[in-house]
């Protein structure tokens, strides 16, 4: 039996969106993340797959989307990753509220959570997002992209995801199996439906936290909801050991699937949320130079031979470019 290496934290979060251009404009121009990969949903190649991340597409920074103008609206509820939170440097929330005012982004009042200040808002499809002000250490592994947002305010990867679950206890046991530790419980605030929020912490500095809350409020997958949460299992050996631990926990993980930029294993955790285990390599710069990430449509493996057909069925999109570089 292989010893399980604790996950360093979240690798990426994948969501469902509506209009592709609106999705790209918001995540690149408004939030200041870099489009590090423009590809297709490998299970539904008629749909784009966009990857937004830090300047180098570092593990723990990529928010990805399956955008489709015809996607039906979803409803955030139980058995979902209901909130996705990003880290921003301490002292930057005033900047973000001013930026949201300038860009017509609706946001809620700040809340305090586990000693940190949280700014909740939604993207154009209604996807619930949060910014959490934290101290960014000098040796932080993320690399801010500064085309639209100055470095001192730029998003620095994931902070956490919040899971809404009918019964959080089995999921908590699974998170412990994956190497996360319970670090606190407090009264839920804002629109969270449960009365208690329990936080689990992973071993790494980015995408560290998973919060779980009890709720029976029914959800529905669709536009404006999270499709799955991926956790880092850096090597194949790490992933296989974690896969076996998940299987021993009574779940049904898939075999490893090659997703071109990482290798993946999928399973639904006890509460019904789709989890993924993702390796660190080969990375988003394995098929494009670092300074050209996101510039072209990349079609993995077998899909390249169908490029003409696939491109004909995808709407045209334009990556936002800053008219003037931001002042640092």
Outline the secondary-structure elements.
Elements (H helix, E strand, L loop, with lengths): L9 E8 L2 H11 L3 E8 L2 E10 L8 E6 L12 E10 L3 H11 L7 E3 L2 E7 L5 E7 L23 E8 L2 H10 L3 E7 L8 E6 L7 E6 L10 E8 L3 H13 L8 E2 L4 E6 L5 E5 L28 H6 L16
Parallel strand pairs: 1-4, 5-8, 9-12, 13-16
Antiparallel strand pairs: 1-13, 2-3, 3-4, 5-9, 6-7, 7-8, 10-11, 11-12, 14-15, 15-16
Pfam families: Glyoxalase
InterPro entries: Extradiol_RC_dioxygenase (IPR052537), Glyas_Bleomycin-R_OHBP_Dase (IPR029068), Glyas_Fos-R_dOase_dom (IPR004360), VOC_core (IPR037523)
Protein name: Ring-cleaving dioxygenase
Short description:
Keywords: Dioxygenase, Oxidoreductase. With 328 residues, the chain is an alpha+beta fold.
Describe the structure.
The termini are far apart. The protein has one domain: 2,3-Dihydroxybiphenyl 1,2-Dioxygenase, domain 1 (Roll). Strand 10 and strand 11 form a beta hairpin. The mean pLDDT is 94. The protein is 16% helix and 33% strand. The protein is α+β, with helices and mostly antiparallel strands. The protein has an 8-stranded mixed β-sheet with strand order 2-3-4-1-13-16-15-14. The chain is globular and about 50 Å long.
